[in-house]
């Protein structure tokens, strides 16, 4: 799986779930509401500017805070194709994989705004096309990779009905 | 090789004898979901083709986050929880019963040594009982409803020893705020924490819950308070770490000199001595939440406010952690002291903690809250400033109109 697109870079640590989607918008199953308010306390213009296929880049501990699965769903429904962060908060990372939102942990990179990026999830690598650089990502555990490859936890469990398929 | 508490608990629930770093499948003893996360979990469960929830007797749904519902949309989601609970024979605690994490412990849905998954990050609170309890998203929870199991990666453990005796007016909230400030908001990411030492041995269950609760504010997967000194009605097995257990870090903290702590906007790990920010004007105080909404917390506030009135420029909102706490506060006179001082009591539950209703601050206002998070916009308005402190600090601040 390869993702290519323009980047939105927020070079800050600890972007929390309250900033990804404020609690007041989470009381619905209508994902278009999440998409309209995604990241609004961090960057009020993000929801308007984002184009389908764009890539979100952040620093450490992205998605810390609450367990709300609405956070990766909001980013996914806004059209972001993959999130690249130096590190992720635990629950956010797990939720993202479960809802089929591609994520890759890349501890060291020099991605800047406007750089064109190609992320290769199966190889665990990120190419910075503008700068001609390649960055190594952390490998996902096998169980997460199989859930992700199934298209998320719903389709995985719909098919296998168990976490230990023989 | 010696094992930490979490390695022991996970091994007890898995077919393998695991150590930190291993990934394994565990049997789950109980689950909890709230009105924020249960509707999505129900949807995921149905999309997985789920028909019957496993362990429905230990499946708990709680309406605590937006309770009672502030609008029709939320009301309809909550109605869906009620019908699902009836169809599936699960427990449902309706509006006013209290916060999920409090209910799980009060109603004995969790016991020491068990594994509990909750669709709420503060599920780590049950570590006060020596249980492995952690937060997951709605779809992960639906997977547990479907299979009775889930996968976990066994985390490494940080050991924290709190030694010494607290000064009067200093509480477990001050200890944990201090630690969050020291380790930082990602200081324990992907790890578990074991809290022990002479200071924890003397703590009430309520104070232990405050400690375990804020483990997630350091990113931890779980936080265990040493069960030494813990008194429960029924006898239980104390799971202790082996002497040669391996820790990623060990910190010793002497709490005898600790002063009241305050976390300043907009991150829980921005922690200072309360005296450092004194004179900051305050418009609203909040006492409640899964961190500090229990009887001892209300009593601590009543001790400060007995026979006095809060400052005319301030408001004080109190949401007891459960109906039981409300009853107890009514019975022992705490409720009357606080309302006479000018407090407004809200429905037992999360109240204004998460900014969905009941007590959203105005622009530029400063709030002192006994809860656990002060991220920007946390209480529903990104132009307000939330400070975090113990219930005594909240009470003192609304009394004087400043921190
Ligand atoms: S009281 Fe606050 S932190 Fe605790 S469960 Fe409710 S919303 Fe979450």
Explained architecture:
The complex is a heterodimer of chains A (166) and B (403). The radius of gyration of chain A is 15 Å and the shape is globular. A 7-stranded mixed sheet of chain A has the order 4-3-2-1-5-6-7, covered by helices on one side. With 166 residues, chain A is an alpha/beta fold. In chain A, strand 5 and strand 6 (125-128) form a beta hairpin. Chain A starts with a strand and ends in a 6-residue tail after the last helix. Chain A is built from 7 helices and 7 strands. Chain A has one domain: Aconitase, domain 4, CATH 3.20.19. With 403 residues, chain B is α/β, with parallel strands linked by helices. In chain B, strand 3, helix 3 (72-88) and strand 4 form a beta-alpha-beta unit. Chain B has 12 helices and 18 strands. Chain B folds into 3 domains: 22-150, 2-Layer Sandwich (Aconitase, domain 3), CATH 3.30.499.10; 156-257, Aconitase, domain 3; 263-400, 2-Layer Sandwich (Aconitase, domain 3). In chain B, the strands form 5 sheets. A 5-stranded parallel sheet of chain B has the order 4-3-2-5-6, with helices on both faces. The interface between A and B is large, with 42 and 53 residues. Bound molecules: iron/sulfur cluster. The site of iron/sulfur cluster has 11 residues of chain B, from loops.
């Amino acid at each position: 799986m390869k993702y290519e697109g323009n980047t939105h870079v927020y070079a800050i640590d600890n972007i929390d779930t309250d900033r990804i989607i404020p609690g007041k918008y989470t009381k619905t199953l209508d994902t278009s509401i999440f998409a309209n308010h995604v990241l609004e306390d961090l960057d009020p213009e993000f929801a308007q500017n984002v184009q389908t296929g764009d890539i979100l880049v952040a620093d450490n501990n992205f998605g810390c805070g609450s367990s709300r699965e609405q956070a990766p769903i909001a980013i996914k429904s806004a059209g972001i194709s993959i999130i690249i962060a130096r590190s992720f908060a635990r629950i956010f990372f797990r939720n993202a994989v479960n809802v089929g939102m591609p994520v890759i942990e890349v501890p060291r990179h020099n991605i800047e705004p406007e750089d064109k990026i190609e992320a290769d999830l199966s190889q665990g690598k990120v190419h910075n096309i503008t700068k001609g650089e390649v960055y190594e990502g952390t490998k996902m555990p096998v169980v997460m990779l199989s859930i992700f490859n199934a298209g998320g936890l719903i389709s995985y469990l719909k098919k296998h009905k168990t976490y230990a398929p023989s | 090789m010696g094992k930490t508490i979490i390695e022991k608990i996970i091994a007890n629930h898995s077919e393998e004898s695991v150590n930190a770093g291993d990934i394994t499948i565990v049997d789950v003893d109980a689950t909890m979901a709230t009105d924020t996360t249960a509707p999505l979990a129900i949807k995921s469960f149905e999309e997985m083709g789920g028909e019957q929830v496993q362990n429905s007797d230990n499946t708990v749904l709680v309406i605590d986050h937006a309770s009672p519902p502030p609008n029709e949309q939320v009301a309809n989601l909550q109605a869906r929880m009620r019908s699902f609970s009836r169809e599936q024979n699960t427990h449902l605690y309706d509006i006013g019963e209290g916060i999920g994490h409090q209910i799980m412990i009060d109603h004995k849905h969790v016991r020491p040594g068990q594994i509990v998954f909750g669709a709420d990050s503060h599920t780590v609170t049950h570590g006060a009982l020596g249980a492995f309890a952690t937060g997951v998203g709605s779809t992960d929870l639906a997977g547990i409803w479907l299979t009775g199991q889930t996968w976990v990666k066994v985390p490494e453990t940080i050991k924290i020893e709190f030694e010494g005796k607290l000064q009067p007016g200093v509480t477990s909230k001050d200890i944990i705020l201090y630690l969050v400030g020291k380790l930082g908001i990602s200081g324990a990411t992907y790890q578990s924490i074991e809290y022990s030492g002479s200071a924890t041995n003397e703590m009430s269950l309520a104070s232990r819950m405050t400690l375990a609760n804020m483990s997630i504010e350091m990113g931890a997967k779980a936080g265990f308070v040493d069960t030494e000194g813990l008194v429960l009605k029924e006898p239980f097995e104390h799971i202790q770490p082996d002497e040669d257990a391996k820790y990623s870090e060990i910190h010793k903290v002497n709490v005898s000199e600790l002063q009241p702590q305050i976390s300043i906007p907009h991150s829980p790990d921005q922690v200072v001595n309360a005296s450092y920010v004194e004179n900051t004007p305050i418009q609203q105080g909040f006492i409640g939440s899964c961190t500090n909404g229990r009887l001892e917390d209300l009593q601590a506030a009543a001790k400060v406010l007995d026979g006095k009135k809060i400052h005319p420029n301030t408001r004080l909102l109190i949401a007891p952690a459960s109906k039981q706490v409300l009853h107890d506060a009514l019975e022992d006179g705490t409720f009357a002291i606080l309302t006479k001082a000018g407090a407004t009591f809200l429905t037992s539950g999360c109240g204004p903690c998460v900014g969905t209703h009941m007590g959203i601050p105005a622009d530029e206002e400063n709030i002192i809250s006994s809860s656990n998070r002060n991220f920007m916009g946390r209480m529903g308005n990104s132009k307000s400033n939330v400070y975090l402190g113990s219930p005594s600090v909240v009470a003192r601040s609304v009394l004087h109109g400043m921190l």
